[in-house]
Amino acid sequence: MSAPSAVAALSLPKTSESENLLKIRHSMSHVLAMAVQKLFPKAQVTIGPWTENGFYYDFDNPEPFTEADLKAIKKEMGKIIGRRLPLERLVVSREEAEARIKAQNEPYKLEILAGITEPISLYTLGEDWWDLCAGPHVANTSELNPKAFELESVAGAYWRGDETKAQLQRIYGTAWETPEQLAEYKRRKEEALRRDHRRLGSDLDLFSIEDEAGAGLVFWHPRGARTRLLIEDFWRQAHFDAGYELLYTPHVADLSLWKTSGHLDFYSESMFGPMQVDERQYQLKPMNCPFHVLTYASTLRSYRELPIRWAELGTVYRYERPGVMHGLMRVRGFTQDDAHVFCLPDQITGEIVRILDLTEQILSMFDFKTYEINLSTRPEKSIGDDAVWDLATNGLIEALERKGWAYKIDAGGGAFYGPKIDLKIEDAIGRMWQCSTIQLDFNLPERFDLEYVAADGTRQRPIMIHRAIFGSLERFFGIMTENYAGDFPFWLAPEQIRLLPVTDEVRPYAEQLLARFKAAGVRASIDCSGDRLGKLIRNGEHMKIPVLAVIGAKEAETNQASVRSRRDGDLGPMDQQTLLEATERANRERLLSPFAALG
């Protein structure tokens, strides 16, 4: 039984981190477009930007591109690179640009040109091809390695991302400095496919999304529901220990609530339509925040009560376009691990530190210990006076510095109602995932006229802090599944130990052992299929059961089981009591493997 594979040591920089890669990938997109128009003269080019791991170009072509076409395009790109063509920047007048475009009969370029301000630049590739572009590019195609790029796929795309406009074909590619980097990228991509939570969700019988019920709605199967419950129980206890109380709030509310909160003005495109009930209109909630605000406003609060910390695993519903939904990562119904803190202005820093501590505690339990942190500050359009914004932003900065966490400033990237901290987590193959968010809010307390009685008897506004650690249970479950490649730690596994009786004669002993495990809270089962031992083991390995316990006549006679661990290998015969104590302790201490505790 094998443990998850380790990450290779070769570092792969992103485009945003490497000026050289930026030039390579930007240039490769032009080489791609030139090759396509050489082979498909009727193809019109639109836009061709770089991405973090490569590049793409969108084309309007009468016929769909095939896999054979991609191979031909790649071959032509190799020829272009081999011609050692210069890439030269030209600054032209708007009139000259228009004339060039009309001569080529490229209507998309005319629309792009209309959105460009002076100066207007274009890049030529050799003498035959050019495109509007700001750069940067390599000086010559000789700087591009013909063995360090690949064309990956073709996908549909709408012009300007607008579903009402022309449908285009997007060709994705990747390019690197060396063939070794390309090989490592391919290895990681294959590893990502192996870890794909959608495939694992089906293989391990964790969840499904049923078309008959509607897109983007998750059905949790018993095995996935078991692991989800374990996550929820851990989350709840961690919050109780951190001084939070739990709320349960409705799934719908009168439409007037969403008018007061501002969601109808700023968020209506992501909301499902209202429903008519008893001559009133009700709205499925897209967020939990207004419900927590109403709970706060249900009675007049004193400064002595603050801070108030409330948390909820609240299911929300948001409209997502069909083309953007993806497994558990982007769905239409999901459960947020929401929390809101209502506090005094001078409590901001302390509360943020507490939130960061809790975030670290919870994420590290799932083996996420490397973070990328951004602090987003006041945008141009915002509410609230300067003094309150300065107090809030400085509170976030001080909290991060108390934690000793490095962070980047996203100037002007905050919401109109307050600054925020965004935290990305790194998974086992080096991918970063947006996860936790801490958001200060001056807007909702104002909209709902929230108050507390201050020490001097005056009525004051509380500061409201929005906070999510997982973001959503669905998305976090998907990230976690891919991080572990479905090999969940023992304490999270839906089925922790499977007993494999070799013959019917030892079945009574297996059932007696099963009863002991269940009484101890260990999630155990018996494989009653009657298959040969080899197949019993293969079935258990396919389902990634952490522990398989083989029971033959000798084991039944000696009150033992032959133990096979996914993480520790074949451990041989082990007596009942030792196995039971090890698994109990692994659950109690939330261990990766029960046998790490055996010494």
Written description of the protein model:
This protein has 18 helices and 29 strands. The chain is globular, with a radius of gyration of 29 Å. It is α+β, with helices and mostly antiparallel strands. The relative contact order is 0.08. Helix content is 36%, strand content 25%. A hairpin with an 8-residue loop joins strand 9 and strand 10 (218-220).
What does the secondary structure layout of this molecule look like, with pairings?
Elements lengths: L18 H21 L4 E2 L4 E2 L2 E7 L6 H16 L4 E6 L1 H11 L2 H8 L5 E6 L3 E4 L16 E10 L8 E9 L3 H16 L2 H7 L3 E3 L8 E3 L1 H20 L3 E2 L5 E3 H7 L1 H4 L8 E3 L2 E5 L4 H9 L3 E2 L5 E10 L15 E11 L4 H18 L5 E6 L9 H18 L4 E3 L9 E7 L5 E10 L1 H5 L4 E2 L5 E2 L2 E6 L4 H12 L12 E5 L5 H13 L4 E3 L6 H10 L4 E5 L1 H5 L2 E6 L3 E7 H13 L11
Parallel strand pairs: 11-16, 15-22, 18-19, 25-26, 25-27
Antiparallel strand pairs: 1-3, 2-3, 3-8, 4-5, 5-6, 7-8, 9-10, 12-14, 13-14, 16-17, 17-24, 18-20, 20-21, 21-24, 22-23, 27-28, 28-29
Helix pairs in contact: 1-2, 3-4, 6-14, 11-12
CATH superfamily of the largest domain: Bira Bifunctional Protein, Domain 2
CATH architecture of the largest domain: 2-Layer Sandwich
User: What is the 3D form?
Assistant: globular
Instruction: State the secondary-structure class.
Output: alpha+beta
Number of strands: 29
CA-CA gap between termini: 21 Å
Low-pLDDT stretches are: 1-8
Helix proportion: 25-40%
- The figure for the number of domains is 3
Major pleated sheet: 8 strands, mixed
Tell me the number of helical segments per DSSP (H or I, 4 or more residues long): 18
Mean pLDDT across the residues is: 92
- For this structure, the CATH topology of the largest domain is BirA Bifunctional Protein, domain 2
Q: Report Rg.
A: 29 Å
Order of strands, widest sheet: 11-16-17-24-21-20-18-19
Q: Could you tell me the strand content as a percent range? A: 25-35%
CATH class category label of the largest domain: Alpha Beta
